[in-house]
Amino acid sequence: MTEYFTIRWENGIVQMLDQRMLPEKVVYHDYSKCSEVAHAISEMVIRGAPALGVAAAYGLALTAYHSQTSRVSDLKEELLQSAAELQNSRPTAVNLFTAIERIMGIAQHFSGMEVMQLRGEVIHEAMKIAEEDRKMNLKIAQYGQQFIPDQANLIHHCNTGALATASIGTALGVIILAHNRGKKIHVFVDETRPRLQGARLTAWELKQLGIPQTVIVDGASGYVMENNRIDACLVGCDRIAANGDVANKIGTYNLALVAYAHGVPFYSVGPVTSIDLSIKDGNEIPIEQRPDDEVAFINERAIIPDGVKVFNPAFDVTPAKYISAIITDRGVAFPPYQTSLYKLKNG
Amino acid sequence: MTEYFTIRWENGIVQMLDQRMLPEKVVYHDYSKCSEVAHAISEMVIRGAPALGVAAAYGLALTAYHSQTSRVSDLKEELLQSAAELQNSRPTAVNLFTAIERIMGIAQHFSGMEVMQLRGEVIHEAMKIAEEDRKMNLKIAQYGQQFIPDQANLIHHCNTGALATASIGTALGVIILAHNRGKKIHVFVDETRPRLQGARLTAWELKQLGIPQTVIVDGASGYVMENNRIDACLVGCDRIAANGDVANKIGTYNLALVAYAHGVPFYSVGPVTSIDLSIKDGNEIPIEQRPDDEVAFINERAIIPDGVKVFNPAFDVTPAKYISAIITDRGVAFPPYQTSLYKLKNG
User: Fold this and answer.
1) A197 part of contact set with chain B, CB < 8 Å
2) What is the b/e burial string over B145-178, where b = at least 16 CB atoms within 10 angstroms of the residue's CB?
3) Which of A23, A257, A312 minimises the CB distance to B257?
4) Of A217, A303, B73, B194, which is most buried with the most CB atoms under 10 A?
C-alpha cells in the first residue's frame, strides 16, 4: 500500500528502514540474526511501539528460521537466549514485551518432538503479529473515511504513519487511505517539537506517497486555521481514559484548543488497545518526562544557553470535551465517551 | 540596569554584542567608523527594530566625532555618505530610517559656521535617540508592574528584551523591573520556533540577570497551564490595530488561545508608536512571509525532506477578545480597545 516499508520479512531476512537517517538518507538494512535485530532496536534504527512489537516477533522468527539444531530442547534454549537479547534492547515499549511473550508462550507449551514443527509455529506466530498490526491499521483507516471529505484540508501532529507501525499507520493511515481512494487531500504537517517527528518522518512519508503537504511550526496552527478552510485535525493517541481524555504527543492539547476556538473537528485515532478503562480520567495518566537535551540540542548543537533549565514532558492530555470523535479499529466513539468507549472496548 | 548591553556609546567608540553568536559565545565588538556599524547591521550583529534605530544614530555620531575637517560643508558631505551606507544596510526596519532622518535633518538645517557645533549637535541627537528608547522601555516596565504579583509564574514568547532594544525591553522589561524590585519571578520561556528567539536570546538574557526560568517548546504551554499556576502571559507587539487586534511573532495567537481556555491573563506590551489607528482591525495588518529555510534548516542542517513545501508566516494576529490589557509607555489600555487605544494615542 505504501511505496516504502518500515520492516519486512522475506525468506529468513528481516529488512528495516533506518529511521535515524531520515529524511536525509533512505537506507534499508538486512538482518539474519535476532541479536542484530535487538541491536537495531536499541540503536533506534526502528521506533514506534507497534513497529517494535513486529520487530521483536521477526527477531525470534529469525532464530527459528536459521536454527541448525535437530533437538526441540536446543531450539527452545536458542529462543530463550534471543528473547533475553530482545528484552534488553529497550525497556518501555509494551508491544515489544507482548510480542515476545506470545511467541515464547508457544515455545514453552510446545510438547512435540519435531523441531521443524516448532520452527514453523514460531515463524507463523510472528507473521500473525505483523498481519494483525496490518489489519488493525486498515480497519482504523476504513472507519476514519467518513470524516475525510474530498478536497480535505487537514492538520496532523507528530508521526502516526507506517514508520511507527508495520503498516499504513493510525491517524496518517486514515489520510493515506483517503488519498489512495482518490480523494484530493492536503495536509498541514505540524513539525512537532522537540523531536520533529512531523518534519522528519511524516513529511517524508507523505512525500513518498505523493500526498500534497505543507510543513508548519507548531505555533502556526492558529494562523493557518484563521486564514484557511481546515476540515479536520487528526492525531494519534497513546492512552485513552474511560472518560475520553486522551494522552498524546506534547503539543496535541494546544492544537485541540486552537481547533476548538475555530470550530474545526478534532479526531483522536488509535487501536482499541489504547483505551484503558481502568483509568478514570486524564489526571491519572502518567506522563513521561524526557531528557532536557531533546529540547536543548538540535543536530548535536545547543540552542539554549548552558545550564538553563528545560521542562520536557513527552505527552500532554487533551480533555474529552475538545475531541469530536475517537476513531479505532472497532469503530468510532462519539461523546459521551463514558458509554461509547465502554461499548467499543467490550462490544 | 542589565549586566550586559546590546549597544553602547563610549568616547567615540560604539560597542555591540554580537547576537549571531548567542547563546554559544558572548562577544562584544568595538566600532569607530560608521561604515563598520553599517556593515554590522547588514551582517545582523545587531537586530530588533528599536536597537537598529539607536545603532544608526550612533553610526552617524561616530562620523561627527571622528571628522577631521574644519569646514561645515565637508562634514555635511561626510554625514551624507555615512547616511547612505546606513540606508543600504537593511531595507525594512523603519526605526533605522527614522533615526537617520532625524539626525540628517539637523545637519541639513544647520546654518552655523562652527564645525565643532554641528559635530556636537549630531552627537547630542544620537544620545537623545538612545535616551528616548531607554525611557520608553522604563515607562512600559513601570506601567506593567501592576500585573506582576510577587511569586509570579509567567509565560513569555519570543524575545522582547534588551537585545531587541537599547534598554531593558518591552514585555521582558516588565519582567526584569519586577525582578529588580525584589519580586520573586519565574518565567516559562517559549522557545519560539522557527528562529528560536526565546531559547537563544530570552533564555540568555534571563540567565545573565539571574531570573529563574524554564525553557519549553511552544507546544507545551497548554500542559504547563494545566499543571501549574500561571499568573500571566506577556508578549510583545509589532502592530496594534484600532480595535485592539495585535500582530506579533508567530505562535502568539496559539498562546493567547491556550491562555484564554485556562483563564490566564494575556498582556500585549509595546510602545504607543506600535498603535496604528489607521488600521481598523487585524485583517488589515500585512503579515510578512519569511523564507522556507528558517523552518527547514536548523544549525545549517535540513530537518525536512528536500522539496517539501513550508509555510512560514513571521507573525500572527491575536484578536482583541483574547487580550486582557495592552501595556504601553503612555499607560495601559483595557477593553473596549476602540476607545482606550484612541485615548492613549491622542491623549
Assistant:
1) no
2) eebbeeebbbbbbbbbbbbbbbbbbbbbbbbbbb
3) A257
4) A217
Residue type, B79: L
SS3 A94: helix
Tens digit of each residue's pLDDT (9 = 90 or more) over B289-326: 989 999 999 988 899 999 999 999 999 999 999 999 99
> B187, B216, B300, B312: which to substitute to probe chain A, counting the most A Cβ within 10 Å?
B216
In b/e form, how buried is each residue of A100-130, taking b as 16+ CB within 10 angstroms? bebbbebbeebeeeebeebbebbbebbeebb
Listed in sequence order, the residues at least 6 apart from A161 whose beta carbon sits closer than 8 Å to its beta carbon are: A168, A169, A172, A173, A176, A201, A202, A205
The alpha carbon of residue B188 is apart from the nearest alpha carbon of chain A, in Å, by 9
Q: Is B222 on the interface with A (CB under 8 A)?
A: yes
- Annotated active-site residue in A133, A190, A231, A238: A238
CB contact under 8 A, B220 and A301: no
A336–chain B nearest CA distance, Å: 21
Q: What's the predicted TM-score (pTM) here?
A: 0.91
∠ CA B253-B256-B262, nearest 5°, is: 150
- The C-alpha angle B328, B333, B336, rounded to 5 degrees, equals 155
Q: What share of chain B is helix, strand, coil (3-state, %, to 5)?
A: 45, 20, 35
Rounded CA Rg of chain B: 21
Closest residue of chain A to B253, computed from CA coordinates: A222
Arithmetic mean of pLDDT over chain A: 95
Question: Cβ of B42 under 8 Å from any chain A Cβ?
Answer: no
Task: Give the type of residue at B170.
Answer: T
Looking at residues B266-285, what average pLDDT do you find?
93
Tracing cell 489489519 back to the chain, one arrives at: A135
**Taking residues A93-100, what's their average pLDDT?**
86
pLDDT tens-digit series, residues A193-235: 999 999 999 999 999 999 999 999 999 999 999 999 999 999 9
**DSSP H or E segment with residue B204:** helix B203-209
Strand partners, B189: B156, B215
Q: How far apart are CA A110 and CA A117, in angstroms?
A: 9
User: In which element (H, E) is residue B244 found?
Assistant: none
- Give B-chain residues touching A219 at CB under 8 angstroms: 190, 192-193, 218-219, 250-252, 254-255
Cβ atoms A71, A78 nearer than 8 A: no
